[in-house]
Amino acid sequence: MWNNIKTNEDIRELMECFGEFKKSCICELKYRSGAYVGSVSEHFLNDDMSISVIFQRRSLGFVQTFELLFRDIKTLRLEPLEKGMECYLTAASIKCKNGLVTFSSWEDFDRINADAGVLLISSAALMWRDISEQISITA
Q: Nearest 5°: phi and psi at 49?
């Protein structure tokens, strides 16, 4: 079941459910442009540019797996850390502002340091779901 993020209370609930993304990792990131080629080779675009991101973390001995789905992408910035640390998050933040929902792999939006790696996504809509029961990406 998908949960919509529309209010600060929705954000608080997600952050609480997933431990504020502390000590979590990005398992998978899937980008969908929404573009396709028609029968006479012209390019068509639709309004479904989206990104799905699957995260995992260990909590109380159990593995939690969450999926975030960003719809109608406005910003995508991915700058991984050094090899072996490119998927690890120490914290994250989500904010709603000016009709956009923004996710950052930094706890403080105002102190993003590009040299330290970042995942930054802003979109018109954000949904999340717990997929711990459906998927197991553990080693």
A: -75, 120
CA Rg value for the chain? 16
DSSP state of 138: -
Walk along the chain (139 residues) in steps of 10 and give the mean pLDDT of each run. Answer: 93 92 89 79 73 89 90 85 65 89 76 59 94 69
SS3 at position 90: coil
Q: Where are the beta strands (DSSP E) in 19-138?
A: 24-32, 35-37, 43-45, 50-59, 62-79, 88-89, 93-97, 100-104, 118-130
Query: Please, are residues 72 and 126 in contact by the beta-carbon 8 Å criterion?
Result: no
Residue 23 φ/ψ, nearest 5 degrees: 55, 40
Amino acid at position 1, single letter = M
The pLDDT value given to residue 81: 61
CA dist., res. 59 & res. 75, Å (int):
30
Contact between residue 105 and residue 20 where contact means Cβ atoms under 8 Å apart = no
pLDDT at 136: 58
How far is it, in rounded angstroms, from Cα 27 to Cα 54? 5
What's this model's pTM, rounded to 2 decimal places? Answer: 0.83
